[in-house]
Specification:
With 739 residues, this protein is of the alpha+beta class. It contains eleven helices and 41 strands.
Length: 739
């Protein structure tokens, strides 16, 4: 399954119906003959030409870029890249900004690299290598290495690039004076001294043993105090540790959930969020209103705090976050910047730290996502779908208010705005035919519509850059369409049409459903690795002759609160199945689609919807690929809420099960490929075990691809290639081979 994809398939597949094949006969045959017969599909010559250029391997040959971080001094920027050559940090420095690899991890071993914390001089940084443990305390080891894996802190200089191990741990917070780093280990706060002159590390010591789940370590500007959050399950406190005296002061503790501590520039005050306590079970259920959340500012010496802002009742009373170092940013003029959904859209507001009315900074019907504060604290850089609902672009607005400035309009997708210490702006970019890559706008050119002057930090064809032979010319440009759900709701989607279709020709079709469900597919390579690779497969399928529909179903993001918090979605009625059905009927009604050859696929929430389609409408969906999908909401809820007891509310439990694919298992007839890693922490592996057993009992054709020790969003790059390759092959056999 790791071989290069072409338009070839076994000759026997053209004569057999998937429903007529016994699983006992087909599955061994698939394993023995998959991709062995060198016979071409009966497709137009132009499609063969595209297939010779576009393979799954070539689409995933460009590394995925993420997690940009600016140095506090000197203008440098670092970011992460993930691909077949491992997971590494890359670096670009002023003034020429020629990217180069920083960390030395060439193996595709799935060990994550991130949590970057710069030292104050901008000449070295601390990072974490290794993923978070599961509930058994096991660190991800997706290659099943006999030595196991660890999650540890490392320190690396920009000059020599030789990492120095600090010790096991996570959540680093470098002291503002550069003399040490605080971090988490075993539920406690630890500290290690750093000698920047000799790159020496002192023996790590326990700094504080605090009850609860500790997180959000944040140093005061004067390096004397360390703020943190202690999550106690039903409630959470914000505390401040005085390092020298080792005394802890709690900031206005109550029964509520406090978090997101943000220091004032002078270190005398601490702002934080307060979410009213609630025992309501809201997992995979719409929540449009709640007891209003608030922002409080505490005097650090006394721990006394006052409320400086509270959300209004109704829309916006529930907090919904952004992607930022902290959802509270302390800006110039003693203003606090924060997200609020008052209008039904996630927008940015500012309020005086002393209290008062909130001022809307980003007016309009759109959603703000990535947010960063400039080094002088006077401007906010953010990504949003303002004026372009199906993409992301960068904007800038003054903390003091005024009209936002569009920085990167156009047909691209931009995210992760990273203002550099010298005034330049680095960010990540992709397009309909171009995968993610890092770019920079020089300081003297940053301004309205300056995105066209951005240049890549890694040249095309250079090590780590987009490969020179990336098959950009062979890809298609998707278009926006609207699908009418079976209950009449209008749902956005993106259509990928195969190249060189003849008039009146009918092709097989595939619908894709994203995960989350709080996600949105876009008109280009996505800013999340999971959907970046999903988009790549949709492109591949289109170049192989499929009509592909990528559906942004209700309960996703990008289209406002009411769309995201869709009534009766998920475990409260599965209303998104109306969108699923509407997508199938949309494809079936197209004059370029063979109505008997329509498949669907998706991962996580998309796997759940794939299973819903096959369980509820096998007459519409001829085949599906279910990647780690949820099949019983009562199991899925318990994964995220260990305290969930289905016996407490029998009616809720009944509705959750009736909203699940397993409730309709007797109607499932179409063949399915299931794919899952057995160390999945988001969707339990038992969900797939239970499904396969039930389908076998009903003589439904099932194929499997299982990754021992792999997690939810696959960490090993070659596992992504195998997944996409297996999915494409399955559709070739099931949808091209005759039903």
């Amino acid at each position: 399954m790791g071989t290069i994809r072409t338009t070839c398939r076994p000759v026997w597949a053209s004569a057999l119906s998937p429903r007529a094949l016994s699983p006992l006969v087909l599955f061994p045959l698939v394993l023995a003959t998959l991709l062995q017969a060198p016979l071409a599909l009966a497709l137009p010559v132009g499609v063969h030409a595209q297939a010779s250029q576009v393979t799954i391997e070539s689409l995933l040959a460009a590394p995925f870029t993420s997690d940009m971080q600016a140095a506090p001094e000197g203008g440098a920027v670092v970011w992460a890249q993930t691909g077949l050559d491992g997971r590494n940090l890359w670096l670009a420095e002023a003034p020429d900004y020629q990217g180069r690899i920083l960390t030395p991890y060439p193996e595709d071993d799935g060990q994550e690299v991130g949590s970057v914390q710069w030292l104050p001089d901008g000449r070295s940084l601390v990072y974490v290598r290794g993923g978070a443990p599961n509930r058994q305390g096991e660190i991800p080891n997706p290659t099943s290495h006999p030595d196991g894996a660890e999650r540890a802190l490392w320190w690396i200089s920009l000059e020599d690039g030789e990492p120095v191990r600090i010790g096991e741990g996570s959540g680093p917070a470098v002291r503002p004076d550069g003399t040490g780093v605080a971090f988490l280990r075993g539920g406690n706060i630890w500290y290690a001294e750093l000698d920047g002159t000799a790159m020496g590390v002192g023996e790590p010591q326990v700094l504080a043993r605090i009850r609860g789940g500790i997180g959000s370590l944040t140093w005061s500007p004067d390096a004397r105090r360390l703020a943190f959050v202690s999550n106690r399950g039903t409630h959470a406190f914000v505390g401040v540790l005085e390092v020298e005296s080792r005394a802890v002061t709690w900031m206005d503790p109550t029964v509520d959930r406090d978090g997101n501590p943000a220091w004032s520039p002078d270190g005398s005050r601490l702002a934080f969020t307060r979410f009213p306590t609630s025992s309501a079970m809201t997992s995979f259920a719409p929540v449009r209103e709640a007891r209003p959340w608030s922002i409080r500012v505490a005097d650090v010496d006394s721990g006394e705090a006052r409320e400086v802002w509270r959300a209004e009742e109704g829309v916006g009373s529930r907090f919904y976050g952004i992607t930022a170092d902290n959802p509270i940013l302390w800006g110039d003029g003693d203003r606090l910047i924060f997200p609020w959904e008052r209008t039904g859209w996630i927008l940015l507001y500012a309020v005086p730290a002393s209290g008062g009315e909130a001022t809307l900074l980003t007016p309009g019907a759109f959603e703000v996502e990535d947010v960063a504060l400039s080094h002088d604290r006077r401007h906010i850089y953010y990504s949003s779908n303002q004026e372009d609902l199906h993409r992301r672009h960068l904007w800038r607005v003054a903390v003091a208010g005024g009209a936002p400035e569009p920085l990167t309009p156009g047909d691209g997708i931009e995210w992760n705005p990273t203002p550099l210490s010298n005034g330049a702006l680095a960010f990540l970019r992709s397009g309909a035919r171009t995968p993610s890559h890092a770019v920079v706008i020089p300081a003297d050119e940053v301004g309205p519509r300056s995105g066209e002057r951005a240049r890549p930090l890694l040249a095309r064809g250079a090590p780590g850059g987009i490969p020179a032979d990336f098959p950009e010319a062979g890809l298609v440009v998707p278009t926006n369409v609207t699908v009418t759900a079976s209950d009449g709701m209008e749902v956005p989607a993106q259509l990928f049409l195969p190249p060189e279709m003849a008039p009146g020709e009918r092709r097989p079709a595939v619908a894709f459903f994203h995960g989350g469900s709080r996600r949105q597919m876009m008109l280009g390579f996505h800013h999340r690795i999971y959907y970046h690779h999903s988009y790549a497969l949709n492109q591949y399928l289109a170049t192989q002759g499929y009509v592909v529909l990528s559906v942004n179903f209700r309960s996703g993001t990008g289209y406002g609160m009411e769309f995201r918090e869709a009534l009766h979605y998920g475990a409260t009625g599965a209303s998104e199945v109306h969108d699923l059905t509407g997508a199938g009927l949309y494809l079936k009604a197209r004059d370029d689609v063979d109505p008997e050859r329509i498949g669907l696929w998706g991962g996580s929430y998309g796997g759940y919807l794939t299973a819903q389609g096959l369980a509820r409408a096998s007459d519409l969906w001829a085949a599906g690929v279910d990647i780690h999908g949820v099949h019983d909401w009562n199991v899925g809820i318990a994964t995220f809420r260990p305290d969930f007891n289905p016996l407490e509310d029998p009616e809720r439990t009944r509705l959750a099960f009736e909203s699940s694919p397993m409730s309709q298992i007797d109607r499932w007839r179409s063949p399915v490929l299931v794919i899952h890693g057995d160390d999945d922490r988001n969707v339990r592996f038992v969900e797939t075990v239970t499904l396969v057993e039930a389908l076998r009992e009903r003589d439904v054709h099932v194929e499997q691809l299982v990754f021992p020790d792999e997690v939810h969003s696959f960490l090993v790059h070659r596992n992504w290639i195998r997944t996409l390759d297996a999915t494409a092959d399955f559709f070739d056999r099931m949808l091209r081979g005759g039903r």
